[in-house]
DNA sequence: ATGCTCCCTGTAGCAACTACAGGGTCAAGA
DNA sequence: TCTTGACCCTGTAGTTGCTACAGGGAGCAT
């Protein structure tokens, strides 16, 4: 059994974040000490580690919730797990493509800056309408 | 002079968003009609277009605010403009790198799924602690 | 007069936390 | 024993950039 602070250190999670996960139902309310302190067992540690790892991989809390509830009924087919992961992957791909397009536009813009005063700056021009 | 709805259409911006920009001081409060309707002139249109273009390029509202106030004093050196743009570019680069690393991890994970039931799924295993 | 579309203000919601304020608890040292 | 300090508690509000109402008023056409 460990305190919320110890759990936080073990999982690299802020105490407030742990309480937040409890509030939104992602972590079960743990047992309390006589002084009303939360105490966590190893299962809670494993569950929070799972959550953090999933979050680090960019899954949304809703996706994490789904993954957790699927894991809790471990006898089912893992098709849904696969689906969630692939959907997330597709989203990442989309974001990468968007950002690469953005980078191209930005770099063109930045390279055009001649370095005079602002009224003649090409960056500002590129942002402004009606002066193409 | 145009109504808020017309300005919204012209800049592809929702009416609520325009009011929001006004509330946070990004757009000046416009003139009003007798019936208390906002009316916008061409300058407001240009300003909102600038904002939208900057937002499309991923600048934060704070960055947009800075760019606008720099533009308003057009005689200054454009060093600061350049700086904002380069900072933003660096952030985009960081995000791209992060997402590419993420994609690598995810694809490894997804490819490892053999398709049985959940308790043996490699995706779940990859997310879980203590079972490496 | 009635409907319809637009506009107004003010407030609350989204994601995923984070940061207090204003207290209580607990272990250790003087 | 008393006190100090680190930790914990609840509850609420802030962050970013909007978006969505609710409950009204304005303006125009029929
Ligand atoms: Zn290009
Ligand atoms: Zn320049
Ligand atoms: Zn790898
Ligand atoms: Zn699987």
UniProtKB/TrEMBL annotation, chains A, B:
It holds the Pfam family MerR. Residues 1-70 form the HTH merR-type domain. Keywords: DNA-binding, Transcription, Transcription regulation. It comes from the Bacteria. CDD domains: HTH_CadR-PbrR-like (cd04785). Gene3D superfamilies: 1.10.1660.10. SMART domains: HTH_MERR. PANTHER family: HEAVY METAL-DEPENDENT TRANSCRIPTIONAL REGULATOR HI_0293-RELATED, REDOX-CYCLING DRUG-SENSING TRANSCRIPTIONAL ACTIVATOR SOXR. This is Helix-turn-helix domain-containing protein. It comes from Gluconobacter cerevisiae.
């Amino acid at each position: 059994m460990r305190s919320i602070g110890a759990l936080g250190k073990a999982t690299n999670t802020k105490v407030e974040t742990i309480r937040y996960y409890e509030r939104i139902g992602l972590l079960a309310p743990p047992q309390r000490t006589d002084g009303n302190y939360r105490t966590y067992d190893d299962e809670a540690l494993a569950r929070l580690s799972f959550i953090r790892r999933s979050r680090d991989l960019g899954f949304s809390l809703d996706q994490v919730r789904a993954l957790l509830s699927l894991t809790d009924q471990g006898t089912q087919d893992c098709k849904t797990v696969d689906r969630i992961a692939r959907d997330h992957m597709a989203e990442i791909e989309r974001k990468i493509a968007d950002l690469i397009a953005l980078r191209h536009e930005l770099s063109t813009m930045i390279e055009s800056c001649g370095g005079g005063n602002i009224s003649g700056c090409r960056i500002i021009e590129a942002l402004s309408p009606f002066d193409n």
